[in-house]
Amino acid sequence: MLLLFVQLYCTCTTTQIFYDCPKIYNLDNMSITAHTVPLLWKIQNLLSERPILFAFEQGKILENIGICSQVSFVRYIQGRKTLGVDPKLFIKDLWFEKVPVRIYQPKVPSASQRRGVMFFHGGGWVFGSLETHEKLCRSIARESESVVVSVGYRLAPENKYPAAYEDCLNATIHFMKNIEHYGVDPARIIVCGDSAGGNLAAAVSQTLAGGSDLPKLRAQILIYPGLQAVDFNLPSYQQNHRVPLLFRERAAFYVLQYLNGNATNLEEVLEGSHIPIDIKLNYRKWVSPDNVPEKFKVRGYKPHVLLDCTTEVYETVKRFCEPNLCPLLAEDALIRQLPESFILTCEYDVLRDDGLLYKKRLEDNGVRVTWYHLEDGFHGVISLYDYCGFSFPAGKRGLDSVVNFLKSL
């Protein structure tokens, strides 16, 4: 154990991940006191990032020598792990129209109809699958005694926006129209997603909010969602730009892959010279560091100068202004129709402020919001609450908060 600790320390000291978070963690049941927390924070983040970094690095090598694409290799690595039979769940793969789904139904008898949770996985619209979020979906279904439907939507860059959004919307509508087959209460349908899946859940929720021929959604659950692509220089982007699992540059890269199938104009998007100033000023009432509480700026924030853009650049990304892609930009008239909401944010996450800004918009428009903030959390932590024998307490607390919210509905 000591040797492992030393090896990890030597590796961590070569990184640029240095944080001071006054929490206590466990590593192989060893209690780590507060003065060692900065080191352990680096260790935990490194361990959570390492398999993904390996896949990205090796995938790039394979792509360079012409064996396969980096994206294909990463997807292969992510999808290799499979879980055995779950004694508490019925699990079945189906198709909702042309969209693959996996349904998790508790075996324990229920005296009444259950909640139905449409789950959209994260992965930057480029990665993720029914398999990558299998453990999380099982946990939600078991612990909340809900029917969970995980949606295997089409991925970018092969399938550009709005493919993923359309798949999630169509799968949800199909579920609503056939609700009687699954023992689900039509008044208790929830959309849920993490990261890019949180983006998709928010977009689907907005689309369904104005409809009249389908059951109303009971709630939306947004787990560290990415909700806008106008400003990549908000306080959380500045503070956490090199924090695993989602770096600032990678966040912009993913949304460009989703939109256009490539990362052209990545530098312009990062510096903020991709949207005309007049449009950015119009959105500042919703997307602005001024709307982020001051306590979230104490770790550092430098105001960013507004930059204009060329017509050529804007033409390639103008759909960033569409709410189906960036739900934070929806009009107030639509926002006020949204269902009760749960938003989870993490302190060490570039997407933290997207969640905070959406929370404010919802509350300003009279929507009831339950907010859970993980002071020691980082992007992707819920999927890593029990990862390869290591304990991620923040992930377990986050998962418990989601389950408790579901139980309250």
Automatic annotation (TrEMBL):
Residues 117-262, 313-382 form the Alpha/beta hydrolase fold-3 domain. PROSITE patterns: LIPASE_GDXG_HIS. GO terms for molecular function: hydrolase activity. It holds the Pfam family Abhydrolase_3. InterPro entries: AB_hydrolase_3 (IPR013094), AB_hydrolase_fold (IPR029058), GDXG_lipolytic_enzyme (IPR050300), Lipase_GDXG_HIS_AS (IPR002168). Residues 1-15 form the signal peptide. Keywords: Hydrolase, Signal. SUPFAM superfamilies: alpha/beta-Hydrolases. Gene3D superfamilies: alpha/beta hydrolase (3.40.50.1820). Belongs to the 'GDXG' lipolytic enzyme family. This is Alpha/beta hydrolase fold-3 domain-containing protein.
